[in-house]
Amino acid sequence: MNAQAIDQYFKNNRETHLEELKTFLRIPSVSSLSEHKKDMQKGAEWLVTALEKAGLENVKIDETEGHPVVYADWLHAEGKPTVLVYGHYDVQPVDPLHLWESAPFEPQVRDNKLYARGASDDKGQVYMHVKAVEALLKLNGELPVNIKFIIEGEEEIGSPNLPKYVEENQELLKADVIVISDTGMQGPGRPAVCYGLRGLAGIQIDVKGPKGDLHSGLYGGAVQNPLHAIVEILQSFRDQEGLIQVEGFYDDVLEVSDKEREEFAALEFDLEHEKKEIGISEDFGEKGYSFVERTWIRPTLEVNGITGGFSGEGIKTVLPAEASTKITCRLVPNQDPDDIVAKLKAHVESHKPVGVSVEITEFDKGKPFLTPFDHPAIQAAGRSYEKVYGVPTAFTRMGGSIPIVAAFDEILGLPVVLMGFGLASENFHAPNEHFHLENFDKGLRVISDYLFEVAELN
């Protein structure tokens, strides 16, 4: 790779690229709101034009039961690996609008940061892959690898139609590695490759007692209170140190190697700074695991909310008829969401207090994902980051979930490389979302280099 020529190309075209990206960001492609359905189509059409301009072939819009998927490829690197690039063009809603310092769909650059909804998540990062391919085709007339793009419009609503699309188009999407830029770095100037995500299982528990609210003076002490009952159920889920008490919950947990734990420790995570940032005096959780390990490699069970009874001003002496709670579990490799939900249901049934009935509703599910951190495609990404940023790359996991990543892993059976360029401070999903242009500039070079690194993996 002629790094100097690529660097000069991006410098010469920086303002043009930024203006193009701003045009993309002006499209209010909010997938969750029906009034933006036409904008979703407009976003897909914009991508088609951008991909064709970059020199990609077989560019098309594939309709789904929801918002469309955009596909493109370039397949002329005979005998070389094929890279499948995934991203999404939909964005989160912008509420509350009054907290934005500039209009969310009128991009502005301030302090070398590009402010707009979707700037970091994920339009800016998707656009970088398109421009990296364009640069290599214009400079060299060819790519070092074969490449395919799949860019969807439903990631922000859980990708409900993409697994079916992937299942039905396995031959079209056949590749050697999947690359996704929808994650973050360790911090400013600190690149990271994410190789593992936790899964998700969520339920709602509804507890019902009498047919209506009762006067606590007339019935208290003689009738089971659904709020007390739901608290009793919740208390049974964990011990005082956070260890989950659901029978069999940890049975399938894949233990982490000593080498990986050494890598985590080498990240020099600043616990005191983290506690200050989130406003706590003490951390909490399983003994024998660090803060990072608890949030990356251990499963969780968290109560997300409780409703029931009277919570207005003053007091109302009522014995409520019903109470409800929502629970989510973050899962780690080898845990299956359906199995965990079944175990949660069995636990609730066996710990149900007398005098109430219980209903359980299942919600979001997503399988955990893991590519071995010593996989050649993962290590190649680390080398590309290091060349451009000049510092060692961190190899990390994430505590959150991207359900479609697990679906890619399960359906296509390919290693997934999460090469993110965002920062945790960039307010994705919140007002004043922005993207540090330092990482936009460097990211273009990292992605370009990575394609050459992958070409040598054969």
Automatic annotation (TrEMBL):
Residues 195-354 form the Peptidase M20 dimerisation domain. Keywords: Hydrolase, Metal-binding, Protease. One of its GO terms (biological process) is proteolysis. Pfam families: M20_dimer, Peptidase_M20. GO terms for molecular function: metal ion binding; peptidase activity. InterPro entries: Cyt/Met_Dipeptidase, Peptidase_M20, Peptidase_M20_dimer. This is Peptidase M20. It comes from Planococcus halocryophilus.
